Amino acid sequence: MSTEIHKMMQDIGRRARSASRAMACASSEQKNQALLHIAKLIRQKANEIQKVNSGDVERAKANGQDTAFVDRLTMTPKTIETMALGLEQIVSLEDPIGKITALKKQASGIELGQMRVPLGVIGIIYESRPNVTIDAAALCLKSGNAVILRGGSEAIDSNTLLAQIIQEGLAAANLPKDAVQVVATTDRSAVGEMITMTQYIDVIVPRGGKSLIARLMAEARVPMIKHLDGICHTYIDADADVAMAIKVCDNAKTQRYAPCNAMETLLVNKNIALKVLPDLCKIYQDKGVELRVDTFTRSTLESCGFKNLVDATDEDWQTEYLAPILSIKTVVDMDEAMDHIERYGSKHTDAIITNNQENANRFLREVDSASVMVNASTRFADGFEYGLGAEIGISNDKLHARGPVGLEGLTSLKYVVMGHGEIRT
Question: If 345 and its partner were Cys, which of 138, 287, 341, 402 is the partner (CB 3.0–4.6 Å)?
Answer without folding.
Answer: 341
